[in-house]
């Protein structure tokens, strides 16, 4: 049997496809529960600004609070997963831990401009997923409207700053040779900028 890292080496396309198929329920839960997500708030509040329904200070406050709240939530799940031994016992070298470490290293060694562009493409799809979910009138319609765009951004290898808040620090806890500073400067900052540009320019302005 291949572990995640072995399969990633021998058949990376299959690993990416599997990730794309299992990731969308996260955004589906956010939409159906009415929770706040930084990347979708970019779309909502920009649309509100353009329509004159909200002020700049309201948008900036929402974006700041949702970004840091999403970070706190991500770090909490990382802690629970580590504490519960979901990835494996501390110090172990199973394939799940190895994959988490590989992912963190890969994401923090992207070119800065590459992380920005991947963030733009990502939130273009995420905001389209939100838009389609809002247009649907029943739960099944919302699920289908959200599912495919989110799967596409995973399969495309794009960068979602909120997802990375979890994935990067899961990798660090697993022992990835990456500093906290690098996760911020080489991924979270550029991917956040990209997500903002994608949500504002490609969806909110277009709508």
Describe the model.
The protein is mainly α and 207 residues long. The chain has one domain (4-204): Up-down Bundle (Glycerol uptake facilitator protein). It is built from ten helices and no strands. The chain has helices spanning 4-10, 12-22, 25-33, 38-51, 56-84, 95-107, 112-135, 139-155, 161-174, 180-204. The longest helix is centred in the middle third of the chain and has 29 residues, at 56-84. It is globular, with a radius of gyration of 17 Å. The mean pLDDT is 92. Keywords: Membrane, Transmembrane, Transmembrane helix. One of its GO terms (molecular function) is formate transmembrane transporter activity. Belongs to the FNT transporter (TC 1.A.16) family. It comes from Klebsormidium nitens.
Features:
single chain, 207 residues, 10 helices, mainly alpha, Glycerol uptake facilitator protein
Count of DSSP-assigned helices:
10
Q: Percentage of helical residues?
A: over 70%
General form: globular
Output mean pLDDT.
Answer: 92
**Overall number of domains:** 1
The secondary-structure element order is HHHHHHHHHH
Number of E-type strands: 0
Q: CATH fold name, please?
A: Glycerol uptake facilitator protein
Protein name: Formate nitrite transporter
Membrane topology: Multi-pass membrane protein
Main location: membrane
GO molecular function: formate transmembrane transporter activity
């Amino acid at each position: 049997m291949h572990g995640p890292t072995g399969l990633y080496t021998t058949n990376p396309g299959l690993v990416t496809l599997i990730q794309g198929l299992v990731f969308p329920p996260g955004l589906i839960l956010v939409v159906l529960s009415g929770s706040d997500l930084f990347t979708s708030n970019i779309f909502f509040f920009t649309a509100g600004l353009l329509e004159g329904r909200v002020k700049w200070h309201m948008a900036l406050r929402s974006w700041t609070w949702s970004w840091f709240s999403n970070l706190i939530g991500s770090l909490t799940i990382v802690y629970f997963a580590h504490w519960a031994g979901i990835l494996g016992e501390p110090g172990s070298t199973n394939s799940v831990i190895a994959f988490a470490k590989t992912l963190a290293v890969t994401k923090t060694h992207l070119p800065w401009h590459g992380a920005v562009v991947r963030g733009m493409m990502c939130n273009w799809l995420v905001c389209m997923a939100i838009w389609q979910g809002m247009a649907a009138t029943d739960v099944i319609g919302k699920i289908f409207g959200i599912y495919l765009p989110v799967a596409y951004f995973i399969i495309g290898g794009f960068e979602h700053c909120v997802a990375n808040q979890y994935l990067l620090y899961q990798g660090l806890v697993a022992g990835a040779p990456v500093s906290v500073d690098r996760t911020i400067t080489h991924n979270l900052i550029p991917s956040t900028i990209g997500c903002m540009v994608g949500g504002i320019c490609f969806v909110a302005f277009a709508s």
